[in-house]
Design goal:
- The protein is 36% helix and 21% strand.
- The protein contains eight helices and 13 strands.
- It has helices spanning 37-46, 61-66, 72-86, 139-143, 145-171, 179-186, 188-207, 257-264; strands at 4-5, 19-25, 48-54, 90-93, 109-110, 113-115, 119-122, 128-131, 212-215, 222-226, 229-233, 242-246, 252-256.
- Strands 5-6-4-3-2-12-13 form a seven-stranded mixed beta sheet. The chain has a six-stranded mixed beta sheet with strand order 1-7-8-9-11-10, with helices on one face.
- A hairpin with a 5-residue loop joins strand 12 (242-246) and strand 13.
Length: 278
């Protein structure tokens, strides 16, 4: 199902520079131990927009079925999203492969949140952007689901190894380093996979007669032109804590929330850093 999404109320962010026409976030993976829910709550408190797109894998039902990790912060994220919808932000939820059961409800509205299979966002500059999660163009997810589950477990293992590795690095006075991100962005086969994924989605945007494409799925925030198609990936809220935002002049940017937190020296009341170990 394709819908053109525009409009919404103008809201005021605590920082006027964080007031956007539209914001796109994906791959929160609530129910997963490494979900950066606390950092996301801080993001949602500080950023305002007319249209908010949730571009898939918001709740990780794969993890929930195996036994969820569901602290209060994960409830707080859902409550914050519903509160934004009540206060006038247009919230559009496009499920991904980890919450694909919700695709059966596409076209319905729950608590002010619109469920869509995909959408077309019309930018301030008149360009049309196809918005979808992207798993439909992942050959592993489509044709070898067992391999996708295996890859999911492997990613969990790499995330778990990040914790002892970074404990040792802190003892040595070194900064944070992500094994999972290193493997994803440096291993040749993974780099090739990302490139092929991006090009396949750019082709779909062209086929749908749109000028751009906004997606998630591969946990790799990016913005680039691919044969005339403006490709944007939201990244994730498991490691990178990134989002795509459109300013009122039609310009798009990648928001890297870890950098905002570092600049503010932001800590939770408990004294723990808002970026959780990953």
């Amino acid at each position: 199902m394709e819908s053109v999404v525009t409009g919404g109320l103008t809201l005021s962010a605590p920082n006027p520079e964080l007031n956007y026409r539209a914001v796109f976030i994906s791959d929160i993976h609530l129910g997963m131990r490494n979900s950066q829910a606390t950092a996301l709550i801080d993001f949602l408190k500080n950023v305002e927009c007319q249209d908010l797109y949730l571009v898939g894998d918001i709740v990780d039902f794969w993890k929930v079925r195996r036994g969820p990790h569901w602290p209060q912060s994960h409830n707080d994220v859902l409550q914050k999203l519903l509160r934004k919808a009540r206060k006038g932000t247009r919230v559009v939820f496009i499920p991904g492969n980890h919450d694909d059961g919700l695709r059966d409800y596409a076209g319905m509205n729950f608590g002010g949140v619109e469920l869509r299979r995909d959408a077309v966002h019309e930018g301030a500059n008149g360009k049309r952007y196809l918005v979808l999660h992207g798993d439909e163009f992942d050959v592993v997810v489509r044709y070898a689901r067992w391999l996708a589950f295996l890859g999911d477990r492997s990613y969990d293992a790499a995330l778990a190894l990040n914790v002892p590795l970074n404990f040792m690095r802190r003892q040595l006075g070194l900064g944070h380093w992500s094994l999972s991100a290193f493997l994803k962005h440096k291993v040749k086969s993974a780099v090739n996979y990302i490139g092929e994924f991006e090009e396949a989605l750019a082709g779909e945007a062209r086929r749908r007669d749109t000028q751009g494409l906004i997606c998630g799925h591969i946990h790799h925030a990016n913005e680039r032109m691919i044969d005339g198609i403006h490709y944007l990936n939201c990244g994730d809220w498991v490691e990178s804590c990134t989002a795509i935002a459109e300013r009122f002049d039609g310009q798009f940017e990648i928001i890297r929330w870890k950098e905002h937190l570092a600049a503010r020296g932001k800590q939770a009341p408990s004294g723990r850093w808002l970026i959780e170990a990953a």
